[in-house]
TrEMBL record:
Protein name: Flavodoxin
SUPFAM superfamilies reported for this sequence: Flavoproteins
Pfam assignment, any one: FMN_red
Domain NADPH-dependent FMN reductase-like: 52-126
A molecular function (GO) term: oxidoreductase activity
Domain of life per record: Bacteria
Length: 151
């Protein structure tokens, strides 16, 4: 039986795409066995996607100091259906902004605390063009959350 890791992402820019690809590469590392990685753009993520997952990775640009509307929409759709059913599941987050990312971090902390999800790795928050170290942190984020689901 394999575990399922759901990646919910909104990647409208080249920087967000670079970070997403690094997270995905970490999550799908061949050394991580027994974990199926499912990717969903935030606007297409359904409550059934979230309910079927054993862990989560969430990626968002930070717009005007907050999560992207697409990622907020995903959480609006899945929050109540998942409220009791997904407590205790591990998650990780990556964010990209040009300035003022604190509001997005605060929002994600509040949403995931409400859901009862457990942070499996520190958030990766990048401003401006991602550096090699930023992309390594994204890779590590994906690998850490995926490895937390191995039996």
């Amino acid at each position: 039986m394999s575990a399922t890791l759901l990646i919910i992402h909104h990647t409208p820019s080249p920087h967000c795409q670079e970070m997403f690809e690094a997270v995905l590469a970490g999550a799908t590392d061949p050394e991580i066995e027994g974990v199926e990685v499912v990717r969903r753009p935030a606007l297409t993520c359904s409550p059934s996607d979230a309910l079927a997952a054993d862990g989560y990775l969430i990626g968002s640009p930070v717009n005007l100091g907050y999560l992207s509307g697409a990622v907020k929409h995903a959480f609006d759709q899945l929050y109540y259906p998942c409220l009791d059913a997904t407590r205790g599941r591990p998650f990780g987050v990556w964010l990209h902004g040009n300035e003022g990312t604190e509001g997005a971090v605060r929002a994600l902390d509040g949403i995931t605390a409400g859901l009862g999800w457990v942070r499996a790795a520190d958030a990766v928050v990048v401003s401006g063009k991602p550096t090699k170290a930023d992309l390594e942190a994204c890779w590590n984020l994906g690998a850490t959350v995926a490895a937390s689901l191995m039996e």
